[in-house]
Amino acid sequence: MMLQVENIHVYYGAINALRGLSFHLEEGEIVALIGANGAGKSSTLKTISGLLRPRVGEIHFQGENITETPPAEIVRKGIVQVPEGRRIFPKMTVWENLEIGAYTVEDKEQTARDYEDIFTRFPRLKERRNQLGGTLSGGEQQMLAIARGLMAHPRLLLLDEPSMGLAPLLVEQIFEIIQDINSQGTSILLVEQNAQMALSIADRGYVLETGAVTIEDEALKLLENPKVINAYLGGEH
Ligand code: ATP
What we know:
Helix 3 packs parallel to helix 6. 38% of the residues lie in helices and 26% in strands. Strand 4 and strand 5 form a beta hairpin. By secondary structure, it is an alpha/beta fold. It is globular. The strands form two sheets. The protein has a six-stranded mixed sheet, with helices on both faces. It has a four-stranded antiparallel sheet with strand order 2-1-4-5, with helices on one face. The structure holds adenosine-5'-triphosphate (ATP). Adenosine-5'-triphosphate binds next to strand 2 and helix 1.
């Protein structure tokens, strides 16, 4: 077991966002969390990253309790979040954005090699390496956000709505990149409103409703589950 989230309860002041949420991810898996707006998907990722603290419950990563671990330490342990809305630094160049992603990597020769790997995987970013992040297209910004995450050498990558706001062709490209990253050994926790795409690349999935898991299954089975089809796949399948 790589990640185990057990019975977490998370609040924003008086608002109870997560209500006894439990799920797990095994090494090498792509796991999808799907659910409507406000179901608690982003809050789940932020809690795993250490940006929110559960009032109740525990999170274990590779056998270690990380429930109270500070966010920077969680990154060093190998959990890296690519936040929703891309959140790249618009006034910094592509290169500088990547440099920030590598802040936990002490071996600077390693980082030099990482730029090469990233630019091989994302040739558009290489072409635009001296351009300001804010001048990139939406798809390029999403790629930069993922690339910035990879610079930290994640063992587990948390992706929050990577398809948001992108044209269908770009969504396909981003999902191919996610699969490729996974096939090279990085486990993936994927939060998506685009349940169809997410489940089509995931091994397993969980449906979240009002801060808790209501359905869990293999991704292919969720794609055939009538409740999932009606609520999250547009009902047309
Ligand atoms: P979305 O796709 O809209 O991001 P989500 O499934 O990721 O939805 P969360 O963003 O985790 O859901 O929100 C879960 C609950 O917590 C919602 O009821 C939301 O209104 C509430 N919430 C989220 N962020 C805050 C905040 N900063 N302050 C107060 N309440 C919040």
